[in-house]
# Entry
Amino acid sequence: MEHNIAVGLDIGTTKIVAMIGRKNEYGKVEILGIGKSKSLGVHRGVVNNITQTIQSIQQAVQEAEASSEIKIEAVTVGIAGQHIRSLQHSDYITRANSDLVIDENDIDKLINQVHKLVMLPGEEIIHVLPQEYKVDGQAEIKEPIGMYGGRLEANFHVVVGQVSSIRNIGRCVQSAGLNLEGITLEPLASANAVLSQEEKEAGVALIDIGGGTTDLAIFRDGIIRHTAVIPFGGNVITEDIKEGCSIIEKQAELLKIKFGSAWPGENKDNEIVSIPGLRGREPKEITLKNLSKIIHARVVEIIEQVYVEIKNYGHEEQKKKLIAGIVLTGGGSQLKHLKQLVEYITGMDTRIGYPNEHLAGDSDDDVTSPLYATAVGLVLDGLKRHERKRVEQIEEAKINDLKPQETIEEKPVKERRSFLDKLTERVKDFLDNAE
# Structure
């Protein structure tokens, strides 16, 4: 595969999407191919049947290859699921020599220290995101590199997940005949695809309503401040309709998509849908008012849980107010009148997020559906990773050209590797040694 082409693989609870994208000359992303299959082995974002998941991945990949005539070799995968949680943590280091300026190594040392936090059994730190630094007690420093100081401390947003769940995803990708190029947190991927830089600066909560989980990512001053995964999504709404109306799941899903509304007030009592009965039985009649009451009850529950997380972040404090409000994305965001209901419950400005922030202007309407926000975000992430690799290779080549005869002492200044890169390597090593 060429270096300017990347593939995102979104392993969701209801669907698996493989998306191929490349950067055009204007720096925008063109989607070259897309494949999607029903996800059978995933429950609430966690793989619970390896064989079925592998088949679903292969199906999505083949479809994407057929639509683009590009062979897929490596993919960037998203992780979410109910095992992801986050916490705030402060840590500090005392520097041996305060006459030297703070550099990358000091920050790495500080971040590595956070990695020694004791977690619950089976959990591992996935992401350590510095929020702000303090140097010798001077607070609110965004970038301490180049400053003098003896004590360097920082507040961190730490994301934690079950290491076995992440390895299972790696295993599925590898068994489907693909290389694991990178792992990204899904709320971050969706955020990259649908949020503008201004929104991230002003303060915004991204709510990605998927089939099995609802992901939340909160940004303020351009930095991610809070993440959460709530173990409910569109599937529980379908489940409720199925139970409440005594119909089969397929019909419940269709009802939700075609006639469902999050706002029960708008349906008249006499609006009725007739559903064919199972083999030889009478058709069922369901009033739309009842349908939207069932949906409304469950959606309110999901939104209230998300709102608790937004309040936990501190949205009600003046300094932490989210000026840009809420952006809804994911398949569940397409429910009629959801925007109005969210505004009503939270009192925050709300819009539906379409992943067209970085896409080329002539992209298909299909691709810019909120359904594909995570997949687009994963493609962006893959492209960014390629770009970083290329810069590193160019730097190394320069240094090799400069000093053919001596051993190289100094290394080029590289962008700090994210923990997800290191995590990807650890998962790869584990899979290679496990065979």
